[in-house]
Amino acid sequence: YRTLFYNYLADPSYPIVAQVDQFFLFGHPSNWQPATPRQDNWNQTLTLTGYTITRSAPNSAFEVTEPSDQHTQTARVELLWRMQTQTNQTYSAFVQLIDPQAQVLAQSDGWPADGFRPTNVLKPGEAVRDVRYLTWDLADPPGGLSLRIGLHDSQSNQPTKLADGQDFIIVPLEP
Question: How many CB atoms lie within 10 A of CB 6?
Fold first, then answer.
């Protein structure tokens, strides 16, 4: 069952309709598109074609009910990756929540699709949804929060470069 679940989670054609804690409701297969389209290509190997950010809220489509949620905020970040070329390397994706001074408040790091889709098994043209969770303290300053998104080699930890030579992109937490 775990493999089947991760197949649905990684497959962008099954939209996440609702989530309460670790319980997911997937919709009928569709042509799910991320809320914010992108075309960021790392090393001519993997392209971030977009992302969707959903913040948890009581009685919403994404809800976290743990007792600590009174003092924290959680965001679900859905990244849509498309493999460009076959590779033998395994890349890890990272998503960091940063404040205006670039201090990291929360981070998620690992192979795409919650660690179940290493890049060395993805085929050219294959798309995977990579769901990440970031939880931070509500006492942190509320304004100007951003996401830093990038890739690094899983073996050497060396950053993977974008076409413009940068190691990562920075996007606003709130569109």
Answer: 15
